[in-house]
Design a protein that fits this description.
Bound molecules: 3-isopropylmalic acid, magnesium ion
Largest sheet: 10 strands, mixed
Radius of gyration: 20 Å
Strand content: 15-25%
CATH class of the largest domain: Alpha Beta
Number of helices: 13
CATH topology of the largest domain: Isopropylmalate Dehydrogenase
Strand order of the largest sheet: 2-1-3-12-11-4-5-10-8-9
Length: 364
């Protein structure tokens, strides 16, 4: 299979972790006889520094022309501490999501048994959890009108949704639920928000087209609580942009670390694959970041963008095997981890590559 992949490392640890997501794609191409070509582009703080624009035209043009995008992370501490900055790294990410029509953000909470002890939750609460979040990505308060009064004493962000925006992501989530365990939980705040009442109405309508799927509606505050009380209760979770942002960071702790969670953003055209973690400038450039979320994002690309299920499985299995062998990055190490097996970014990336290579030897 011939594919053009655009790599956008972005900011902070994005640079280091994406190196390994890309290396895994190269390894897979060699082993399975695919022809993947790679191009690179800048975005975020890196792009503001270079061109004064968090999403340069050239990056957007390359993104539109590619078959899939592997993205790293975005943000810089400088802007976090300066709420008055008009140009911000995150604007690049929001703009590319909008421009590419990436309305569905899939965030699987993939729980490796070996990491049950890395979570602050009890292993017996976690064991067996398998959740797939569908977070709406191009609407909500993220993209509604923003205002600040002239006297600077008032601000507002408009939360809005169109029926079609809810419907198209609901269909994606129901399709997935139908193919999984036929359970879907839609999360909203319909007891307070008008947007949530529209959301619930549309989801109820779409649900009628999937009679085999057991549909539940839950308020966001309750869902946030249930997620740590009994995560196994959930299978497919469908929610709006802001609620999904918050809920998936919470859910990452089920998987042990933010450093483990991959995501796929899909919609009208090119798919966008990225870890859910941020740029983590405090550890950037120190060979400390966990590359597994980027590697698992590469696996999602293989599966979702290219339909290469076997290849994707090989990558996910390699990650599981490396964890089984006891290797950890610092964020997923626990009291039982042998300190000699706590690896840096590079060493962890190499372990995964090596295991993928061994899988070919076995197959031959
Ligand atoms: C995410 C991030 C982004 C978001 C930020 C960086 C704009 O937190 O992808 O979850 O809020 O969507
Ligand atoms: Mg987030």
């Amino acid at each position: 299979m011939k594919k053009n992949i655009l790599v956008i490392p972005g900011d902070g640890i994005g640079q280091e972790v994406t190196t390994w997501g890309k290396a895994v794609l190269e390894q897979v191409a060699t082993q399975f006889g695919h022809d993947f070509s790679f191009d690179e582009a800048i975005m975020g703080h890196t792009a503001i520094e270079a061109m004064g624009n968090p999403l340069p035209d050239d990056t957007l043009a390359k993104a539109k022309a590619s078959d899939a995008i592997l993205f790293g992370a975005i943000g810089h501490i400088k802007y976090d501490n300066d709420p008055t900055a008009k140009i911000r790294p995150e604007q690049g990410l929001l703009k590319i999501r909008k421009e590419l029509g990436l309305y569905a953000n899939l965030r699987p909470i993939l729980l490796f048994d070996e990491l049950l002890d890395a979570s602050s939750l009890k292993p017996e609460v976690l064991r067996g959890t398998d959740i797939l979040f569908f977070r709406e990505l191009t609407g909500d308060v993220y993209f509604g009108e923003k205002k600040r009064s002239e006297d600077n004493n008032f601000a507002s962000d408009l939360m809005n949704y169109h029926r079609y925006e809810v419907e198209r992501i609901a269909i994606k989530a129901f399709e997935a639920a139908q193919a999984r365990s036929k359970r879907l939980c839609s999360v909203d705040k319909a007891n307070v928000l008008e947007t949530s009442r529209l959301w619930r109405e549309v989801v109820q309508e779409v649900a009628k087209r999937y009679p085999e799927v057991e549909t539940e509606h839950m308020f966001i505050d309750n869902a946030a609580m249930q997620l740590v009380k009994n995560p196994k209760k959930f299978d497919v979770v469908l929610t709006a942009n802001l609620f999904g942002d918050i809920l998936t960071d919470e859910a990452s702790q089920i998987a042990g670390s933010m450093g483990m969670l991959a995501s796929a953003s899909i919609g009208d055209s090119t798919g966008f694959f990225e870890p859910i973690h941020g740029s983590a400038h405090d550890i950037a450039g120190q060979n400390k970041a966990n590359p597994l979320a980027s590697i698992l994002s590469a696996a999602l690309m293989l599966e979702i963008a290219f339909g290469l299920t076997e290849e994707a499985k090989t990558v996910t299995k390699a990650v599981a095997d490396v964890l089984k062998a006891g290797y950890r990055t610092a964020d997923i190490a626990d009291a039982k981890t042998d300190s000699k097996q706590v690896l840096g970014t590079k060493e962890m990336g190499k372990q995964v590559l090596q295991v993928i290579a061994q899988k070919q030897e076995i197959a031959n």
